[in-house]
Design a protein that fits this description.
- The chain has one domain.
- Helices cover 78% and strands 5% of the residues.
- The protein has 8 helices and 3 strands; from the N terminus they run αααββαααααβ.
- Strands 1-2-3 form a 3-stranded antiparallel beta sheet.
- Helix 3 runs parallel beside helix 5 and helix 4 crosses helix 5.
- The protein is elongated and about 55 Å long.
- 29% of the residues are buried.
Amino acid sequence: MKTFINGWRLLFTGKAGWDAIASEDRGVARTLLLHTVPFSLIPAVCWFYGVTSSGWEVADQTMRMTADSALPMVVMFFFACVAGIFFLGYMVHWMSTTYGDEAPISRGVTLISYTATPFFVAGVFGLFPILWLDIMVGVAVACYCIYLLYTGVGPVIRVTQERVFLYASALFAVALVSFVGLLTATVLAWDFVIAPEYTY
């Protein structure tokens, strides 16, 4: 329960919240099950409702996706979130020897999972898909996630303050490349696997 609560606390305390998270000794499975999985369900469930029930306005028409076509996309999105957290957490572990002592993969998964908390919580805006609002929220959330990454590397991974900026920048670059790869995979999936079906 404490793991889940710390995720919410981090949203409002920022840098100070990392100290409480860093003091907890947690394994990979615990972080994934008690933080990553429940928080990943927020955007998955909200966007499923939003695109199938609320819909969005296109040329004075309300467009929605059918539940049958939206469900596999949402399920894939959920598993992509969990897998992405684990992959980036492993990269934190893999890169740690370059910037200090080797950090266990559990600390890497903890850092990335909690850094992504604002992204997960912002998924509630998927209940009512509004393009301009989603873009504004997305930019704000991305900025805050970057801030959390830079402030969390020191206390969680326990690297020296002089190396925090370089380490966090390298992780940000890896995350950016991974995100582009995920977008590419999504486009390919839409074309060849699960093309969306719409109702008006």
